[in-house]
Write a structure and sequence with these properties.
single chain; 81 residues; alpha+beta; three-stranded mixed β-sheet; 2 helices; 33% strand; globular
């Protein structure tokens, strides 16, 4: 919903979409990077793009943090890359 609040529901029309994810979590050592990517793609599908099959490149980096206020994700969506 954060995407829709900022950009509305106009889908990205580019044929190539790159997703970069930084996951900051207390449990980063136990979580697989594909789980973080799945959360992001599922969340953006239907808001940023119609189907996540338009994503041609994805990068996920996970960071372990100790403070709960530092937990979260930074998501970068690039088009035409």
């Amino acid at each position: 919903m954060a995407w829709a609040d900022k950009y509305g529901f106009d889908f990205i029309e580019d044929k190539e979409i790159t997703i970069k994810v930084e996951a900051h979590s207390k449990t980063a050592g136990r979580c697989d990077v594909d789980n973080y990517l799945k959360i992001v793609l599922d969340g953006l599908q239907g808001a940023a793009f119609e189907n996540d099959n338009k994503v041609t490149f994805a990068q996920v980096i996970k960071f372990k943090v100790d403070e709960p206020e530092r937990e979260g994700m930074r998501i970068l969506v690039l088009t035409g890359v």
